Amino acid sequence: MALGIAVLLNRGAGPPAQRDAEPPARVVRIIEIPAVDVVPRANGYGRVRPERVWEAVAEVNGRVIETHPRLRRGALLPADAVLLRIDPTEYELRLSQVEADILSTRAQLAEMAAKEANIRASLAIEEESLALRTTEVERKQRLRDKGTLSASELEQEKRNLLAQRQAVQAQQNQLNLLPAERELLEAQLARYEAQLADARLDLSRTEVQLPFRARLSEVNIEQAQYVREGQVLIKADAIDRAEVEAQIPIARMRALLQGADPIDFSIGPGGALAERLGIRARVTLRDAGGDVSWDAELARLSDTLDPDTRTVGVIVVVEAPYADVVPGARPPLVKGLFVEVELFGAPRPEQLVVPRSALHGDRLYLVEDGRLAIRHVTVAVRHPEYAIIAGGVAAGDELVVSDLFPAIDGMPLRGEPDPEARARLVAAATGGADAARATPAVQHTPGGTPKDTSPTTAAAP
After folding, report:
1. Could you give the 3-state DSSP secondary structure of residue 379?
2. What is the CATH number of domain 26-38+350-430?
3. Could you tell me which CATH number the domain at 56-86+211-238 has?
4. Stated pTM of the model
5. How far is the C-alpha of 226 from the C-alpha of 229, rounded, in Å?
């Protein structure tokens, strides 16, 4: 009976209904893809050095008789400050001797001028006497022809005429020698005047002056010490301009300059070159007490590339590195500080940017209608913190910035906006103040392995 009832009940029943269970939607962080004016950026690190370094080298021998009261390493001294004086006695005596030789030679030249005048006067007299003797010989010759004068008297008069001619010739010979003697004295005077200039120069070299406002970096001399020519006495660093040479990866420089017009790097000064490229620079000291920045100018590129690290040396210059110092808050940009150099390229308007970490090869993960959409995109430029997208997405698309694994096209997602991530992205793309903090500082080692090169804390001098 019971068996029959069970058969009747099961005869009209179908198989149990089955339902496919959809996995729950995963929660992911999303941002809306922004379109911003991108400012390409490249950064590197280097140490500060003065643009000009001056060495005081002894140009004369002698004993130091006076030094500047603040002649110590680290002292800041104004331009034209007298750093030391070497005993000038020997060079003053030499100067007096040369001046005396010049006076003697000028006196000889004056004497020669008077002598020339005397010889010319004597020559004029002798020539008049010669004319008279010539007339007398002609007169006696006529008397001899008439027979009224003896031959001996005529011969005597002719001998007198020859003697007078010899006297005239002697005066003329003295006059002819005077130009050569004058040239000799003038050459001697020129030599003495050159010696005078040399003596004055040596005398001026006994006083060592600072050519520009500078900070003393090395002092190798003390008062009463004897110095020899060629000895390095003092080294000083100019404080009007400082420069930093930073090594920047070639790939970052390529991204920075991409899109620029062709230009000849061999012409024009560095400043004009940077202006034509639209590049500006900034030097930043990373410190636990707060970052300090200085505006800089791209001065030039280094002469060689580093094939091991694939970097190029970029040299930037900072004007007035010792200005606007705030004790305890803003130190001067002194030699040896380890700083970051940032280069900013010309702005590129309305570019679609995404975080570099959100880019998976040439694909982006988007949230569309609560599901994952995997889009193939065209990447224009890849920067360390972000990438510029040329096609495949549009501004405002919801981009997944979380790590998503596995990523299956069409899987359900629930996006939660991440405004901080978007703000960091915009700051990095536009060159904002927080761009450098968006990712850790990384520099490649010669072996090719990246290492953290975040600068250590530098104490203010």
Report:
1. strand
2. 2.40.420.20
3. 2.40.50.100
4. 0.66
5. 10
